[in-house]
Amino acid sequence: MNLKVVLKTTGKIILLESALLILPLVISIYYNENTQIYFIKSILISLGIGLFLSLIPGKGNKIYAKEGFLIVSLSWVIISVLGALPFYLSGEIPRFIDALFETVSGFTTTGSTVLKDVEALSYGMLFWRSFTHWIGGIGILVFLLAFLPRSKGQNIYLMRAEVPGPVMVKFVSKVNMNARILCFIYIALSLFQVGFLLLGKMPLFDSVVITFGTAGTGGFSITNASIAAYNNKYFEYVIGFFMIIFGINFNLFYLIYLGSIKEALKSEELKCYLGIITFFVIIITLNILPSYMDIGRAFRDAFFQVSSIITTTGFISSDYSLWPNLSKILLVILMLIGACAGSTGGGIKVYRILVLFKAALKNTKQIFSPRSVYSIKVDNEYIDRKIVDSIQAYFFIYLMILIFSVIILSFDSLNLISIFTSVVTCLSNVGPGLGVVGPVGNFSSLSDLSKLTLIFDMLAGRLELFPIIFLLGFFRLKK
Questions:
Q1: Which pLDDT does position 153 carry in this prediction?
Q2: Transmembrane region positions (predicted)?
């Protein structure tokens, strides 16, 4: 293990975060707020730590799998701690554990909040809170890799450790160019959404921060009522559409850019993803229709919430905790499924569900035909046994973390629905759950132990479990 290269690379990531903190500082200056000094202090602290780590003397810059996992997990923890400083130093989130929870929720694109009154935050803090979604959606390391000098392909281990999905999205052979393409697609789609929201007469500040939450599939809003505060069907359909877009594997956008539209549309994962959305929207619309005045509004709310939950964005257009049990159960199922691999969405991922289903089907066939040989194929390509094993291991670890987290949260005086959905929504990076942590609730009433547990869940979910597990194992071995 090359600890020097781990610390030096982590230092560069912290330096990037200090640079990104300049944007909310500019917003604070523009609105003439008294929070400017707190952003300056946070920038200076991050700058100092980043310079100290990045200037550590030592030869060798080789990064392999172990270094990649440690850099990703360690850097995400550190940028979350440093990112919480503006909230804590300003007193707008007075308890550090709450500031950390909010920041981790932002960077991991979860959207769970401990704030009872979001609108009490200053413009600078609102901007930084939503900006963490946009940074975390694509991954701060992807931004860094887009500009790092090439290192003979070894940056591939950083990409594999951070990019969501069992199979890394890869457009070209060069890792740095791959990161630049990802950034280009991400920025272009974000600009498109801002433009569409501005066409609907949404204020510029609102358009930008709502886009941050949509692009990162995070869900932080600047109003207590989330998207429901606008009560505008144009905004809901535009945001709903872009949530679905950002939940699609970015590899397909690159294929479309190259003109291979037919090849992109043949994707089994895409068909499955859109099929799930269509099916769940229809069922929920019919289920909630008796409590609505017209089918148009029922469809709109069903479409928006299904889009929001399956992409793990977490925006709210209606209080779905009042919906019938069938609709609420379906939404919890969507929390578990999540979006496509290689997207900014969370959850188990449609690709994993697809492979697990085909693996179960294969094993069932072999029970009845032991001598037959069956293989698993997705998009007419054979799936390597190592990938299947990795997905099965992921699913098992996901369940174990879910079970242990539920047990820890059971020490709080919450009902079972609140406890279970608290864990599911954080582990899948969704945001709101049901009960106390539902669409009109928040996580402020939870104990510090529960919040720390959910912070771990959010980080584990965003980093696809293995890097954060590796971090815990690394420190255990050091002891």
A1: 47
A2: 12-31, 37-56, 68-89, 131-149, 181-199, 237-258, 270-290, 329-348, 391-409, 416-434, 454-475
